[in-house]
Structures are given as C-alpha cells and as structure tokens.
Design a protein that fits this description.
The complex is a heterodimer. By secondary structure, chain A is mainly alpha-helical. Helices cover 75% and strands 1% of the residues of chain A. In chain A, strand 1 and strand 2 form a beta hairpin. The chains are: A mainly alpha, B mainly alpha. Chain A: It comes from Lentilactobacillus sunkii DSM 19904.
C-alpha cells in the first residue's frame, strides 16, 4: 500500500511542473504586459522599457519561469490590476465562498445518491428501480447550465423562494442571521448541483450492491440463517460503500468545473465568478493563479481518491 | 458451384437451398437487425429517433433560406416583440431579431459543432485507447501518464483562456480547440476493452501467423468492439451538445454575430429578460433538453441492443 501511495505522489511532481509551465506559457501568450493599467497611460515609453528591464521581462522564458516559481513558493502570486490587491488575498476571500458551496453540494449529493442507489438495488428489476433509472437518465443527459437557468427562473424569480444573487444579504447582522443568510444563498444552487450530480454514485452503488447480493458469501450467510438486515449492514454496505467514499476526491474536478456556471447564474461571488471577471478585464495575474489553483486542487482530489481507494481496495495496489 | 456439390455429395441443389434457408433462420440475426428490432419494440426510442432525424433535417434545410447577417441586424420596430404573432412566431429579442430564425440558425451551428467535436474527439480517443491497450507495457504507461495529466487540467478555464488569447477564430477552430480536451472518456473506455480483447486467442493466433500490429488493431480488434464504439459515440454526442452551448452561454463560444443555442440561453443572464421576456431564452433551453434527452435515449437503447445481441449468443465486444 505504501508503495502505491509513494508512486502516486512521485508521479504528481512532474505533473505539477508541466501544469505550471503550461499555465505560465498561457499567461505569457496573453496580450499586454504586467504594467498595463498600473501606470499612467501617458508614461514615457522609455520608462516602461526601463521597468520591463528591471522586472526581467526581456529575459528568456525559462529564466522568467524560474523567477515566477520562486515567487510562487514565497506565496506571492502577484497583484491584481483590477482590484489593486494581492491575488492571494482575493483568492482567500472568494475561495471561502466557493468552498462552502462545494462542500454543501457534495454533502447533499451523497445524501441523495446513497439512499437512491441502495433503494434501486434493493428493488432490482421492479418499478422503483425503473424510476430511479429514469431519474439518472434525465439528470445525466441535460446540460447543467440549462438546469441552473431553469432552476433560478422557477424557484428564484417566479416563486421567489430563494435569493437570486450574492452570497449573503446586506441586512443580515449577528452570527445566527449571517449563517442563515449564507445558507439561504447556497441552498438552491447546492440542491440543483446535488440533484443533477448523483448519477455516478447511484449507478455505481446500485451495480455494486446487486453484485454483492448475488455473490456466494451472501448466499452462505443467508443459508446460515443470518437475517437479511444484518447481511446488508455488515457485509453488503461495508463492501460497496467504501469505494463510493473514495469517489469524493474525483468529484472535486466536476464541482470546480461546475462552479463557473453556478456562480455565474447565481451571481455568487466565488472563484468561478472571479475568474470570469478577470477574463473580461484581462486581469492576467488572477487568471494564472486561478488556473494553477484549480489544477492543483484537481490533482490533490485525484491523489486523495487514489490513496483512499488503495487502502480500501487491495486490488489496485502494486506489490 | 452447384455441380461441384452434386459431384461430391448426394445432396440435391433443392435440398441444399432448403437446408441453407433453415440454417439462416436459426442463425443469430445480424447486429444491425438486432438494433433495429430493439428500436421497433421501443416506442419512445422510435419517437426519439424520428424527432432527431426530422429536426436535424428541418434545421439544415430551413437555415438555407435564412440570410444570417440580415437576420442579425437590429430592427427597432421589433423591440421585444411578443411571441405568437404572424411576423414573429416566437417573438423577438432586444434588437428586434426574430427568435424563431435565430433558433434555427443557432441549432444548425450548435448541432454541427457537436457533430464535428464528436467525430474528431471520438476518433482520437478510439485510436488512443486501441494503441494504448494493445501495445501495453511502456507504450501504455507513457500514454496513461499523458491521460492522467489531461485529467487534472482545469478544462473549462483553459479553454476560456485559449479562446481569449486567440484573436480570430471561427466554428472550425473552436471545434478543434474543444477536441483537445474531450477525448479522455472515450480513450479510457476503449483502452480497458482493448486490454481484455488483446488477451483473446484470435489475437494471439493472428500475431503468430505474422499479421502486422496495425492490421490486428484496426481490422480485427476494432470491428470486435464496434458496438461499444457506436454506443459511446452516441452518448458523447449528447454530452457534446452541452459543451459548445455551455461555452457560448458563458460568452466564450462562437464569436459575436454567430447565433448558437448557448447565446440564446445567455439572454436569461439578464434578470429583466429571464422573467419579463421569457421567450428570448426559453425555447432554446427547451430545445437543448429535448435534443439531449432523445440522443441520450437512443444511446441507451443501442446499449441495450448490444446486450441483447450478447444474450442471443452472438460473439460481441
């Protein structure tokens, strides 16, 4: 097991290096230079030239890349031109919002997906099973952004049940009120994300439980006279639920990708919206930092899932 | 032929004909036949298939009669015209542009991109999976690392960044950019199936008799996993409709002046539009839902047909 984990971590390092080079080159390819907007437009071109020279912008790209990485390790992601704030601070403010929404969505996804998967497997081949299958087929097929638009239209604007923008209402004061207001703002996007994100969990769990139900060890337990309830609790769930738990890391990729759509539709001030704004204002330092951060989070998510899987499932380990 | 048989055996030509007819009746039907049978037995599947074919044909033909640049011109007389009037069937948007016409041209653009994306990314993913799974060893290991790396790239963000960097692009460039990022699912599926397939006897036999690797991969293994390929391609087509429309919805898909289902739905981003002028975006949203549901349903039926073929004893993927 340790071998698997060690190998997995070692593979991660070159991936991270290549990702950072890619992000850096993309940033370099963007039009404009880092001084656009931060200096007087009437400034002397010679002075800009001088600034460029001081900041090493005429150096070869690998030299610049190295400087960038050194700054990165010092926690210096540069300044945002639009907000005139260090990017690290910006990401800290917005990141918390995205994190809450993602965590809330993930908890709801499991809360909806696990019972549904078990329910469908329990009633294998019956009407209930078919209904769950129709549900997964519908949620899997419809593009998520369409769901978001319809959701905010019906429940946000027409029925007026939920707020349609922001992460907290301006009038909320005190701990209790602010918490409730925050929760109120993430319920609808979180619920939509969860309802339309359970496909993998439901389908995987259903087939795992059905496989287990027909396996020899369950038949043996039944013939010994163990009640079906205990078999489910001690044998089937144990074997089927653990791999599902490991999927949490993989789902980070989907949640982060979806966050751009969710935050745009709900005008929710998280990292996705920050990214879209940064693109519109050509705020390159913010763009670079966010792409790198999302890539890093994807990497950590997969790493986490792989490690958990190798612990619970001996088949994926290397000897 | 007939005479040859009569020379060696005592079976007459008439008997032979009767025997071969019996054999044909007992033989398992062809894959295409099983698939068609599955469709015929499933009314909703037939409906989806007809809706889809009819719709695509309609959109292609109808868009030929629409002058796109003229359609995209602003017409103040039609400012937010109400729907269900003789001039504006589905109303008009803030520029007085007819939603019905935009919907037709937009559907053509979105569907064409989805088809292009599906063809390019699936072809690439299939080749990648076949080669990776067949050769195994170091080749597979190296290809798997590339796959792993592609999986951690924040796709949506990277695509948006690339689209912003490139000064001029059109539908074809956009399709190519998208194709870079959407082949991984297919490749993983095909790889795992090819891994299993290469262990089979016929591959070993073919190798021993000196058949070239490429010929084994594309003429022997690929036909054997063809039903998997068909099902996967159909399902990715349904997914790919959401890819371009999603990007256009965010404002980073097709360039300005080229309508897409996504840009129509983007009308809903304005709080005034979403409730007050629902006809500017709702038809497009509904259309995407119907399209995706029917394509995806066709994919499901095809998958069932593949399983049915297996049930009937035909050697399948």
């Amino acid at each position: 097991m340790w071998k698997t984990i060690l190998r997995r971590v070692l593979i991660m390092i070159p991936e991270l290096v290549i990702l950072s080079i890619l992000v850096f080159l993309l940033a370099k390819a963007m039009p404009g230079d880092p001084f656009t907007g931060s200096i007087n437009p009437k400034a002397d071109p010679a002075q800009i030239h001088h600034l460029m020279e001081i900041h090493g912008l005429y150096d070869p790209w690998y030299q610049q890349y190295w400087n960038w990485v050194v700054h990165l390790f010092h926690g210096d992601l540069g300044m945002s031109y639009e907000y005139q704030e260090p990017v690290v601070d910006l990401i800290q403010q917005r990141g918390a919002n995205t994190l809450w929404l993602a965590l809330f969505t993930m908890v709801l996804t499991y809360a909806i997906g696990l019972p549904l998967g078990l329910y469908a497997a329990h009633h294998e081949g019956k009407l209930q099973d078919t209904l769950v299958r129709v549900y997964t087929y519908v949620t899997m097929s419809i593009p998520f952004f369409v769901v978001l638009v319809l959701g905010i239209w019906i429940f946000g604007y027409a029925l007026n049940w939920f707020p349609t923008s922001g992460s907290i209402s301006a009038t909320a004061t005190g701990f209790g009120a602010t918490t409730m207001s925050r929760l109120g703002h993430i319920i609808l996007p979180g619920l939509l994300g969860a309802l339309f994100g359970t496909v993998n969990i439901v389908q995987y769990l259903r087939s795992e439980v059905i496989d287990a139900k027909h396996s020899d060890y369950v038949r043996t337990a039944r013939s010994k006279g163990v009640p079906m309830k205990d078999i489910y609790r001690h044998h089937i769930f144990r074997n089927s639920l653990l791999p599902i738990a490991a999927f949490a890391g993989y789902s980070i990729t989907g949640l982060l990708g979806g966050s751009i759509f969710t935050e745009m539709v709900f005008s929710y001030p998280g990292m996705g919206l920050l990214f879209l704004n940064a693109i519109n204002f050509r705020d390159y330092t913010v763009i670079t930092a966010l792409v790198l951060l999302y890539g890093f989070l994807n990497l950590m998510g997969t790493l986490l899932s792989d490690i958990v899987l190798s612990i619970v499932d001996p088949r994926v380990r290397i000897e | 032929m007939k005479r040859d048989i009569e020379d060696v055996t005592s079976i007459s030509a008439a008997d032979l004909e009767k025997l071969s007819k019996e054999a044909a009746a007992e033989a398992t039907p062809s894959r295409a036949k099983i698939m068609w049978g599955e469709f015929k037995a499933d009314k909703p599947a037939m409906a989806s298939l007809f809706i889809l074919i009819f719709f695509i044909l309609f959109v292609i033909v109808a868009s030929m009669f629409i002058n796109t640049p003229k359609m995209m011109e602003t017409n103040l007389m039609g400012y937010y015209a109400k729907p269900f009037t003789p001039e504006y069937w589905l109303g008009a948007d803030s520029g007085g542009r007819s939603i019905a016409k935009e919907l037709i041209v937009g559907s053509r653009n979105s569907i064409s991109i989805a088809i292009g994306l599906t063809i390019i990314s699936s072809t690439f993913g299939i080749c990648w999976g076949l080669i990776s799974g067949y050769y195994g060893g170091m080749v597979d290991l190296a290809m798997q690392r590339v796959y792993d790396f592609m999986m951690i790239i924040p796709m949506l963000m990277t695509i948006i960044v690339i689209v912003t960097i490139i000064p001029h692009y059109n539908a074809i460039t956009l399709t190519l950019i998208l194709s870079i990022f959407y082949w991984m699912g297919t490749s993983r599926l095909i790889r795992s199936r090819t891994l299993a397939e290469s262990q089979k006897d016929y591959v070993a036999a073919s190798k021993t008799s000196g058949t070239g690797n490429l010929k084994i991969i594309f003429r022997e293994i690929m036909p054997n996993i063809s039903s998997l390929i068909i099902v996967d391609t159909t399902l990715s087509f349904a997914e790919n409709i959401g890819v371009e429309t999603g990007l256009s919805f965010l404002g980073f898909g097709l360039p300005m002046g080229t309508p897409s289902l996504g840009t129509l739905i983007a009308n809903a981003n304005d709080p005034e539009n979403i409730t007050g002028y629902w006809w500017t975006w709702f038809p497009a949203a509904l259309e995407i839902i119907v399209l995706c549901l029917s394509i995806s349903y066709i994919g499901q039926v095809m998958r069932r047909a593949t399983n049915a073929a297996q049930r009937r004893g035909k050697q399948q993927d």
